[in-house]
Amino acid sequence: MAVYALTGFSLVSLLSFGYLSWDWMKPSLVADVATDPMEKALPPTFSRPPHIIFILTDDQGYHDVGYHGSDIQTPTLDRLAAEGVKLENYYIQPICTPSRSQLITGRYQIHTGLQHSIIRPRQPNCLPLDQVTLPQKLQEAGYSTHMVGKWHLGFYKKECLPTRRGFDTFLGSLTGNVDYYTYDNCDGPGICGYDLHEGEDVAWDQSGKYSTFLYAQRVSKILASHSPKEPIFIYVAFQAVHTPLQSPKEYIYRYRSMGNVARRKYAAMVTCMDEAVKNITWALKKYGYYDNSVIVFSTDNGGQTFSGGSNWPLRGRKGTYWEGGVRGIGFVHSPLIKRKRRTSWALVHITDWYPTLVSLARGNLSNVPDLDGYNVWPAISEGKESPRTEILHNIDPLYNHAKYGSLEDGFGIWNTAVQASIRVGEWKLLTGDPGYSDWIPPQTLTNFPGSWWNLERLTNGLRKSVWLFNITADPYERYDLSDQRPDVVRTLLMRLVHYNRTAIPVRYPAENPRAHPDFNGGAWGPWASEDDGEEWEGGGEPLKSRNKKKKKKCKICKLRSFFRKLNTRLMSNRI
């Protein structure tokens, strides 16, 4: 009981004294009137289209970068951000697939049918094939396009693969998480397979190489073989720092004083990733790209607090619509920025990179109407106001409805049991169940996490389905103003109604047993084709006879997988 009380006291103390002095926001963050999302930047002053390097990290918490006061060492990210423009009003999505889909399409997930959860390995689902992707637009503009890292946008058909969606080359994983050394991924007991691909082939020969190093080395190789006179786009989607928590020994040793094992391993992975970014930046300079390059750094969602991550002092964590789930680490580093070495409070969302980067590339946006993103390059480079005034965080009709929500609580215009969240100007509204809702400091103590689970269980029992915050004045979401400002609540609910009218049906099909890696030589990969027809997507009768032909291979596949894993573990010297 004493420990519990002490933990509560520490929270109040830290919130009251430790961070309230931080100048989080400044007045006039956004323009009063939204402009056309297709609006292009002023003609670039640089002579030719810039090289674009987009770095996306996985599950890195808001607090987990040096310049946000972290105890984790990130000297490269700190330097690049300090010399560029830090984005401190930057938003992403709370989980993997939604952030990646919005980056690649420039559209909210309600407009691609991916508004619920993630794309799972056995689902016959992928980024809709009618969407024109960011790399496709850059290819049209004359760019060489390359992807290295985690895809997580579906792969059940070959048409869904990165090399069919605009990338000239691809090295990485197709699913959501894999072993950093063996590249194995299990989607349930006994449903395991290898997931590292080179183009459209399985990269068996790369097993045993730590993915963070492997991906950075591949970027360097791409730069070395390409001409800096020709524009290039490289999308580096690190697996780090998603679970499993694995890192080379030498990085863990730096954090040996951390009592919390998960935090120690997580910190090592972040620092390792930081060094990988250093190597990529060095390669840009070595091979002559740097002076005409734009480096964008972004996280994909908030940190997972029970896996070592920290979003302190923000509320919530990965998978929630509290600020800790959707406010991201972001910065732009480029010699081409007009006003460098500053912090921007312009409102920016991950959908904005699509029109921003296509405009920088001098590409054509006229044939991709109804983008939800805006060109924010003038705000980043010149310090102008952002054209964005609001963000639809999401509307998820399939998520568990809040027990105490109702149409009546939503003024008869919105069912507050539905999970949804929107930001308009300085106001943020949440309805339904937004997810775990507490403030969780960095878990550096050996037994720290336990007491916080108790707090989460208590706060999740509140009989509420509507929250309203003034994010400018209250970035930590401590003061719910829904009762005091019903007028604002009603206004934001009307915006949710507006967006909901434009939403397309949710794409979340049942899992298909044909996706099992045993039917694909022991690896995750496409299992359907255009010739199969729709019945293959639903797991119909033809599946049974097809599976019988492949089951004979299963024992050999499993035996080979066993020896491959054993060999990798003996040679990788991993922890």
Automatic annotation (TrEMBL):
InterPro entries referenced in this protein's UniProt entry, alphabetically = Alkaline_phosphatase_core_sf (IPR017850), ARSB (IPR047115), Sulfatase_CS (IPR024607), Sulfatase_N (IPR000917)
Q: Which domain of life is it from?
A: Eukaryota
Q: What segment(s) does the record annotate as region Disordered?
A: 530-552
- What family is reported? Belongs to the sulfatase family.
Keyword terms: Calcium, Glycoprotein, Hydrolase, Metal-binding
Instruction: Name the cofactor(s).
Output: Ca(2+)
**Cross-referenced Pfam families, in alphabetical order?**
Sulfatase
Q: Which CDD domains match?
A: 4-S
**Protein name per the record:** ARSI Arylsulfatase
Coiled-coil annotated spans: none
Kindly list the GO molecular function terms attached to this UniProt entry. metal ion binding; sulfuric ester hydrolase activity
Give the Sulfatase N-terminal domain ranges: 50-361
